[in-house]
Task: inverse folding
């Protein structure tokens, strides 16, 4: 099926049908994520929060099958800084630049201003998910090379999707998040007790 898949880059979510995007972002049978919806990501663009002037240039990747049905998406941004990512790689940037490299711009897949783990490869769901995922990743890696960028970052990947990123040109960086879960506490004092 791979030869029947086509991929392209869009610079705004306004260029993709909301129902098609959402069918990939929140397919039946998987937990619903409001942060991956067309409405949420579009609101970040329309509000002026995630736009080129703020260092978030949309480079979303779409994969269609031979019938023209959207089978997968990758929310992706060309970034000129690391603000709003909740990954503190400024030390890496400084070291890279001291060694003579140019760390920015870079490509980032993640939800702007939202440190929520989740699916980054938005797959409609079906027997060809592996091929669609591979096409999304290869396209993102090709953009990184074509733009002569230092790196491609895919932040806060859902553990269930790690299998798609087993690629010789990709490195896994592990991080830790500390999350509070309210297990029925009625107040902060109740929590401390």
Result:
């Amino acid at each position: 099926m791979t030869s029947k898949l086509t991929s392209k880059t869009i610079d705004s979510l306004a260029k993709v049908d909301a129902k098609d995007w959402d069918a990939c972002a929140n397919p039946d049978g998987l937990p619903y994520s409001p942060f991956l919806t067309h409405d949420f990501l579009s609101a970040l663009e329309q509000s002026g929060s995630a736009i080129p002037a703020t260092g978030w240039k949309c480079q979303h990747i779409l994969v269609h099958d031979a019938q023209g049905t959207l089978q997968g998406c990758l929310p992706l941004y060309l970034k000129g800084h690391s603000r709003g990512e909740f990954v503190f790689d400024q030390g890496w940037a400084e070291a890279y630049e001291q060694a003579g490299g140019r760390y920015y711009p870079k490509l980032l897949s993640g939800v702007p201003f939202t440190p929520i783990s989740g699916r980054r490869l938005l797959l409609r769901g079906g027997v060809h998910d592996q091929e669609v995922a591979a096409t999304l990743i290869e396209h993102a890696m090709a953009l990184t090379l074509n733009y002569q960028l230092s790196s491609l970052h895919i932040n806060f990947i859902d553990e269930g999707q790690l299998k798609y990123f087993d690629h010789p040109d990709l490195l896994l960086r592990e991080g830790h998040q500390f999350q509070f879960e309210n297990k029925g506490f009625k107040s902060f004092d109740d929590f401390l007790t």
Notes: The longest strand covers residues 6-10.
